[in-house]
Amino acid sequence: MIASYRELFSSPGTLGFTLAGMLARLSLPMTGIGIIMLLSQLNGSFALAGSVSATFVVTYALLSPQISRLVDRYGQRRVLPVVAALSVSGMLTISLGTLWPAPQWVLFAGALLTGFMPGMSAMIRARWTSIYRGHPRLRTAYSLESVLDEITFIAGPPLAIALCVMLIPQGALLSAALMQAGGVAALVCQRRTEPPVDVNGADGSAVSPLRSPGVPLLMLLMAAMGVIVGTIDIATVAFAGQLGQPAAASVVLSAYAVGSCFSGLLFGAVRLTISLPAMLLLGALGIAATALPLMVVSSIPGLTLAVLIAGLFFAPTMIVAMSLVEQLVPANRLTEGMSWLLAGLNVGVAIGAAVSGQRLDDGSAHDGFSVALYAAALIVGIALWGYRRLQVKTAAPSPG
């Protein structure tokens, strides 16, 4: 398994952009949970915290495909510094807005600006695709990226919670701003591995990824998966708080990422013969099934085990979805196509955080977790409905 991943870095420059992307993408999970921790600590309202966090996530989800379209057209080094600067200014606005009795609209305005954060996962995946398009190593690269995404969710939430609880409430947002600025700067300096600019698509005539058959369905599936993630994020913070162990929330959230990280590494190293749509169906049904135990847990160890098992299905499902997009969308719209899937995921995260946050203000942590059950039912419906459609749209078997 190690040899499969070692081969990825035989191409010059791959280690450099991987490390830069890792630093920059760490700001995403830190920002969402950082907003929740900051506002719930200072204002005592999970509804406000969830709403401001949702504003950031929805803005990020809606803007990241548009930013990716600009990147496809003008290049990463011309677009990323501008949008990263806007995002950092939003984090500073939220942080400063909590130091004085600023009106709530200042927080929401800061969240809107923060949403200009570039989708670093799509940017790095685009670099891998430019190097290994059509090669079996590409699925391994996608697996690595999914694992690195999960590592950020292992390190990000605990770090954000620790900074907010043990240092200052604004610590997570300020640290995320520094990481985003530094990571983007390091990435855009690496021009050798930057994907070529979409000169042929500059007139806007190329087919949009949203018009590619199967992509809207994958977006909807990602959104439903995101609702579960967003619900787990905010309901876990409330659950740990109700038990008098607020810092334990970081352990639980890390367990979700650990499970996903382990399964992603394993999935990227093996070669399966079943089709991508079949893999997607199995992964989606697994994610839906693991939402059920959330309603019966009564302790931190129980919740930790439940989300660890849930995480095992997440990374493989994401890897398969990205592999399907690589087959379904035009090559010169790949960054944008991947961003639409990530947008669907993050819209779902925002919906999950906002709805469960409202239910938490009105009831217990289990009331918040109940939102995941509705998302699980939606996932089952989408998975069953989309299986045959995707089988028809993807004639090629699973890569590798």
What is this entry, summarized?
The protein is built from 16 helices and no strands.
What would the keywords be for this entry?
400 residues; mainly alpha; Growth Hormone, Chain: A; 16 helices; 77% helix; globular; disordered C terminus
Question: Mind sketching the topology for me?
Answer:
Elements: H1 2-8, H2 14-25, H3 27-43, H4 46-74, H5 76-97, H6 104-114, H7 120-132, H8 137-167, H9 171-188, H10 215-242, H11 248-269, H12 276-289, H13 300-311, H14 314-328, H15 334-362, H16 365-393
Helix pairs in contact: 1-8, 2-7, 2-9, 3-4, 3-8, 3-9, 4-5, 4-6, 4-15, 5-6, 5-9, 7-8, 7-15, 8-9, 8-11, 8-14, 10-11, 10-14, 10-15, 10-16, 11-13, 11-14, 12-14, 12-16, 14-15, 15-16
